[in-house]
Protein backbone atom coordinates (compact mmCIF):
# COMPACT_ATOMS: atom_id res chain seq x y z
CA UNK A 1 0.00 0.00 0.00
CA UNK A 2 1.52 3.28 -1.14
CA UNK A 3 0.86 6.34 0.97
CA UNK A 4 -0.87 8.97 -1.11
CA UNK A 5 -0.22 12.67 -0.59
CA UNK A 6 -3.63 13.10 1.05
CA UNK A 7 -2.85 10.34 3.55
CA UNK A 8 0.53 11.87 4.29
CA UNK A 9 -1.11 15.24 4.93
CA UNK A 10 -3.63 13.66 7.30
CA UNK A 11 -0.85 11.89 9.22
CA UNK A 12 1.13 15.13 9.44
CA UNK A 13 -1.95 17.00 10.67
CA UNK A 14 -2.58 14.38 13.38
CA UNK A 15 1.02 14.70 14.54
CA UNK A 16 0.79 18.49 14.59
CA UNK A 17 -2.42 18.27 16.64
CA UNK A 18 -0.63 16.12 19.22
CA UNK A 19 2.24 18.62 19.34
CA UNK A 20 -0.21 21.50 19.83
CA UNK A 21 -1.90 19.64 22.70
CA UNK A 22 1.47 18.93 24.32
CA UNK A 23 2.47 22.59 24.08
CA UNK A 24 -0.89 23.70 25.51
CA UNK A 25 -0.45 21.33 28.46
CA UNK A 26 3.05 22.69 29.06
CA UNK A 27 1.72 26.25 29.00
CA UNK A 28 -1.03 25.37 31.51
CA UNK A 29 1.43 23.60 33.80
CA UNK A 30 3.80 26.57 33.71
CA UNK A 31 0.97 29.05 34.38
CA UNK A 32 -0.32 26.97 37.28
CA UNK A 33 3.24 26.65 38.59
CA UNK A 34 3.60 30.42 38.57
CA UNK A 35 0.38 30.82 40.57
CA UNK A 36 1.53 28.51 43.34
Structure summarized in a few sentences:
It contains one helix and no strands. With 36 residues, the protein is an all-alpha fold. The longest helix is centred in the middle third of the chain and has 31 residues, at 5-35.
**pLDDT < 50 stretches:** none
Structural category: mainly alpha
| Strand percentage | under 5%
What share of the residues lie within helices?
over 70%
The average pLDDT is: 89
Total strands: 0
Structural write-up:
With 36 residues, the chain is mostly helical. It has one domain. It has 1 helix and no strands. It has one helix spanning 5-35. The longest helix is centred in the middle third of the chain and has 31 residues, at 5-35. The radius of gyration is 16 Å and the shape is rod-shaped. The protein starts with a helix and ends with a helix. The model has no long low-confidence stretch (mean pLDDT 89).
Amino acid sequence: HETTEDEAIVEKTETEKQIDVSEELLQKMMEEGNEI
